[in-house]
Amino acid sequence: MIEDTLTSATLVSHQLRKIGIEPVLARDGEKGIELFKKEHPDLILLDIIMPGLDGFEVARRIRQLEQAGEWTPIIFLTARTSDEDLEKAIAVGGDDYLIKPVSEIVLAAKVRAMQRIAQMRHALLILTRKLDDANQELTRLSSLDGLTGIPNRRQFDETLLREWRRACRQGKPLSMLLCDVDSFKQFNDAYGHQVGDECLKAVARCLQATLRRPADLVARYGGEEFAVILPDTDLGGALLVAEAMRAAIEGLRITHRHAGPATGVVTISAGVATMVPARGHTDSAVLIRQADEALYRAKDGGRNRIASTTLRPLN
Ligand code: GH3
Ligand code: MG
Q1: What is the average pLDDT across 177-188?
Q2: Does ligand 1 lie within 6 Å of residue 180's CB atom?
Q3: Ligand 1 atom nearest to CA at 196
Q4: In what residue span(s) does the GGDEF domain sit (predicted)?
């Protein structure tokens, strides 16, 4: 309560205590604002005519002090009864208006109404926060592959577009790998789909662990196909990453009795493509097509190997 007249303050305090509210009192506007900052009250009862700052000015300043989303109900207490005063009280940020001498019943009713609004507002705030959290989680989930937990095709597409544009702007090379598990159909046929799924998870984890730079991205591109985006990486760098991935998957030593006779374990083949996108060249799919074509040649060349668009196959 911000009220300079002691008799009125004492009377209203008494009425408030009767309905279970413990008031704290400031005797002028400046002290009232300080008390507001210190106490964070649930409700402000504010006299209009006071020495120094009047109630209108106090209300204005309190509204300025509140952060976005914050709101403390303000009920003006006044002997003034003109429509203009009421209008001004609401305009400066007040919520309601009580005429002095304050009726005990009206005070109790208005305080209750404010409490109800405050509770609803609080519930809404909690709900909004929960909704925000759920939305964030949904966004995260919608960009991840359900089986392997690594980025999905959708995130891959977004990242490729973004990195393609960046490479265009900066005149830097952009590399891409398409990795495909060798003879995976036979792996599934031999060990069952569930073991196949576990194998894909292990492959995804392993590919992701091979990447070192924060801007690199590996995504599940299709069934047993993984795509890697390597920003600001030339063909030599991309071939190194591809070879590291190939070796790492072979190094997992996941038994595959129908794999090529040389290995006996799960392996991947990879197609590598690198481009420095020309300005105005908007079709990022050309990079995918080139990597796909290289992948086809790696498969054709005997699997468990790497091919690139311009260099001869490694391994
Ligand atoms: P290649 O060496 O030429 O790549 O032969 P491949 O058998 O790996 O290729 P193909 O495209 O003939 O078969 C891919 C198989 O991958 C078909 C399907 O059984 C399996 N596959 C695709 N997605 C999944 C998946 O999510 N889980 C499991 N377990 N298997 C999958
Ligand atoms: Mg395959």
Answers
A1: 97
A2: yes
A3: 29
A4: 172-311
The closest of 88, 6, 306 to 182, measured between CA atoms, is 306
Ligand 1 binding pocket includes 304 (Cβ within 6 Å): no
Please check the confidence at residue 311 and state whether its pLDDT lies above 60: no
What DSSP letter does each residue of 45-74 carry, written as one string? EEESS-SSS-HHHHHHHHHHHSPTT----E
Instruction: Specify the pTM.
Output: 0.69
Interval 254-310: pLDDT, tens: 999 888 667 899 999 999 999 998 887 878 899 999 999 999 999 999 999 999 986
Rounded to whole angstroms, how far apart are CA atoms 301 and 14?
93
What average pLDDT does the segment 186-205 reach?
Answer: 97
* Cα–Cα distance measured from residue 125 to residue 142, given in angstroms and rounded to the nearest whole number: 25
Q: In the chain, which segments carry CATH 3.30.70.270?
A: 153-311
Atom 13 in ligand 1: residue holding the nearest Cα? 185
Report residue 294 as tokens.
């290289």
The CATH homologous superfamily of the domain defined by 6-126: Response regulator (3.40.50.2300)
Confidence of residue 80 (pLDDT cuts 50, 70, 90): confident
299 lines ligand 1 (CB under 6 A): yes
| 78 close to 97: Cβ distance less than 8 angstroms | yes
Query: Could you tell me the two tokens for 114?
Result: 């404010």
